[in-house]
Amino acid sequence: MTAAAGPARRGAREVERLRRHYALRHVAARCGVYGAAVLAALVCALPFLWSLVSAFKQNQDLYDPDSNPFFFNKPATPDHVTFLFTDTPFLTFVANTLIVGALVVVITLLLALPAAYSLARLDRPWGTPMGIGIFMVYLVPPSLLFLSLTRVVVWLHLEDSLWSMIVVYPTITVPVSVWLLIGFLRAVPKDVEEQAMVDGYSRLGAFLRAVLPLVFPGIVAVVVFSFTLTASEFVYALAFVSASPQMVVSTGVPTQLVRGDVFFWQSLQAATVITAVPIAFLFNLFLDRFVTGFTMGAVKT
């Protein structure tokens, strides 16, 4: 037994050595993955960090080429942020952006949901050509469309008003929202509606009570996408609105803070940070909904 115990102990030690080796490799691999993720996050966050630091820098610190752009080489000052709120109608621009974005989101949902449902559920020969046509509209550059849309805005007497953007922006948001919702609706089995209709619901009732809750992640995606697209749009907002009290953030901020060859750079960066943080927070708040929408099964088996 003594002779046999030696190889057994050596085998046990070898197994333990291999276990520790693979455990270390696993830890090293996880550390590498997390390290790469942290590095990528830092690289992506650097522009935001630079904007945040620049917003509170003094002019002498900002324009000194020997200064580190990511640190305060001179004491920080809130004067440029204060200038943004007190000497420009920045809050008016923000309020206009929220009003336009909210109404465009409502219009987009009212138009995109029925269109997506009809294309995804109703077997008609015109479904595929119409879906392709809707998507082709989204591919047309705004720089080509705004000339004809300007005639529409003038005919409706909506120039220099928020309603001009509220009427025009759905032409951008609806096509891509329809295609996005089609993907979500097609992921929901038809059995869900059929069972609801067997239980006595109409097609509309089956859609509202059975299908709509299952495509809620897609609706959230459309809401966030439509609002961010509306808030960042520039060409239409610049072409249709020239009155400062009716401007949105995308056009009002550069108009007020870029005056000829004079750039109020710190205030521009402050406006960037202030408008980007709520949108980023909103997106991250519903991030789980996006993932759930693409991975969750619609029917339990």
Keywords, separated by commas or semicolons:
MetI-like fold; flat; BP-dep_ABC_trans_perm; 15 helices; mainly alpha; two-stranded antiparallel ribbon; Carbohydrate ABC transporter permease; disordered C terminus; 301 residues
Structural commentary:
By secondary structure, this protein is an all-alpha fold. The protein has 2 domains: 2-77; 86-295, MetI-like fold. The protein has 15 helices and 2 strands. It has a two-stranded antiparallel ribbon with strand order 1-2. The model is unreliable at 293-301 (pLDDT under 50). It is found in: Cell membrane.
The share of residues in helices is: over 70%
Pairing-aware structural class of the strands and helices? mainly alpha
Average of per-residue pLDDT values: 79
- Level-1 CATH class name of the largest domain: Mainly Alpha
Strand fraction? under 5%
Name the CATH homologous superfamily of the largest domain. MetI-like
CATH topology of the largest domain: MetI-like fold
Short précis:
This is Carbohydrate ABC transporter permease. This protein has 301 residues and is an all-alpha fold.
Would you spell out the secondary-structure blueprint of this structure?
Layout: H1 2-55, H2 59-62, H3 79-86, H4 90-121, H5 127-139, H6 142-155, H7 162-168, H8 170-186, H9 190-198, H10 203-211, H11 216-232, H12 235-240, H13 249-257, E1 258-259, E2 262-263, H14 265-285, H15 287-295
Antiparallel strand pairs: 1-2
Helix pairs in contact: 1-14, 3-14, 4-7, 4-8, 4-11, 4-13, 5-8, 8-11, 9-10, 11-15, 13-14
